Every structure is written in C-alpha cells, then in structure tokens.
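Journal club prep — side note

Before the paper discussion, L.F. wants everyone to see what a predicted structure for a comparable chain looks like in token form. Sequence:
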Amino acid sequence: MSTDDTTPHTTVGKTKFYQGEGHTDPLFCIEPGIPCQHAREQASELMGCVCDLTITGIMEDKPQLIWASYYLSALAKALMDDAELGMKH
C-alpha cells in the first residue's frame, strides 16, 4: 500500500490527556483528521500563551494562572504528539 505524498498528513486521534495518577477517563483527546501542520501551529500558539501565563502567574502571585498554563501546555503537548503520530503514517 503506497501513500500519496501530496495528501497532507493529519492527526490520528490517539493522544489523550489524563488528569493525575490513577484517572482512567481522559480529560480531553485530539480528534483525528486535523492537518498536522495546523495542529503544530496551534500548539505553538498555545505554548506562547503558556509562557505569558506562567510569567504573569509567578510575578503577580496568581496560582490560577499557573494551573491554566499547566492545562494549556498539556493540550499543546497532546497536539504535538498526535501530529507526530500523523506524520509517521
């Protein structure tokens, strides 16, 4: 079976994020079929927000911003991981 190199690679939809140890239900998962390039661009945007939220949370002693950055970074990682899986197919 050959693949057409002109067809854009897409996410496979296998990456899930679980909150904490022992949790069996994913908090969120990546949908299949997202163009990998778009997923990677969105992950980059999210990581920019993570950086801003982290710095502001530390400088202004706002732990809720640190938690927000934690969840956004997990989403960005899930996007990147699933895009990576999609690039292999």
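L.F.'s comment for the group: The radius of gyration is 15 Å. Keep this in mind when we get to the figures.
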